[in-house]
Amino acid sequence: MIVTLDGPAGAGKSSTARELARRLGWCYMDTGAMYRAVALVATRRAIPLEDEPQLAALAESIEIRFEQGRVFVDAEDVSEAIRTADNTTATRPVANAALVRAAMKQIQRRMAADRDVVTEGRDQGSEVFPQAELKVFLTASPEERARRRLAEERAKGQNVTLDEILASQQDRDHGDTHREVGAMRQAEGAELLDTDGMDREAVLAVLLGWIEARRPAPPTAAGARPPHA
Ligand code: DC
């Protein structure tokens, strides 16, 4: 079964998707981390961030894996390196490149083949897995998302203001919703979950309920008939 969680930055997708996959014992795909990984390796190899064919070839040539909450490129744990401010900036042109998105779609489909997966990003329900059994668009108001982000940044010792976070969030939302290919949108048939005022457990409870309701029935023996009453 495939569950897709899409939505804007700061809606709590990553922590929700990771915990959901952990509780279910399913695979977790952080597709933002995949774009970030391509940007990181491109920068290290001095591949110009506007060279779409080279970026797409790079995406095909590296192996990105998720293991126990960490992100690996080939043998290297890149979990921290992909989240620096510089790499976040470098990721934007990579995620906007149509050829990279086309390559990613194939890579993500291969990764999810014949598995139970929770996948998280911007286009998972709309472009990559439109046939997923459960598609969710997870969101929250800009103020709530910025407040959560502020708490995270302060916990990391970063000295940022709510206004700064709101401004950069607005910028990212605009970029994500206006890119030419793979723009963030609520997929057809996706459930909308607005998490304003909900804590993590409440969000997980809603998602687990939806999954239970849509889980395909286990296969029965061919020709088996229900017992007569
Ligand atoms: O979710 P995140 O911040 O780690 O995403 C990193 C970047 O990748 C961000 O610019 C949005 C983009 N992205 C995307 O275009 N499509 C996805 N499926 C996931 C992320």
Can you offer a commentary on this structure?
It is built from 9 helices and 8 strands. It has 229 residues and is α/β, with parallel strands linked by helices. The protein folds into 2 domains: 127 residues, P-loop containing nucleotide triphosphate hydrolases (Rossmann fold, 3-Layer(aba) Sandwich); 85 residues, P-loop containing nucleotide triphosphate hydrolases (Rossmann fold), CATH 3.40.50.300. The radius of gyration is 19 Å and the shape is globular. Bound molecules: 2'-deoxycytidine-5'-monophosphate (DC). 2'-deoxycytidine-5'-monophosphate binds next to helix 2 and helix 4.
Strand and helix map with partners:
Layout: E1 2-6, H1 13-24, E2 27-30, H2 31-44, H3 52-61, E3 64-67, E4 70-73, E5 76-77, H4 85-96, H5 98-112, E6 117-121, H6 124-128, E7 134-139, H7 142-155, H8 162-178, E8 191-194, H9 200-214
Parallel strand pairs: 1-6, 1-7, 2-6, 7-8
Antiparallel strand pairs: 3-4, 4-5
Helix pairs in contact: 2-4, 3-5, 7-8
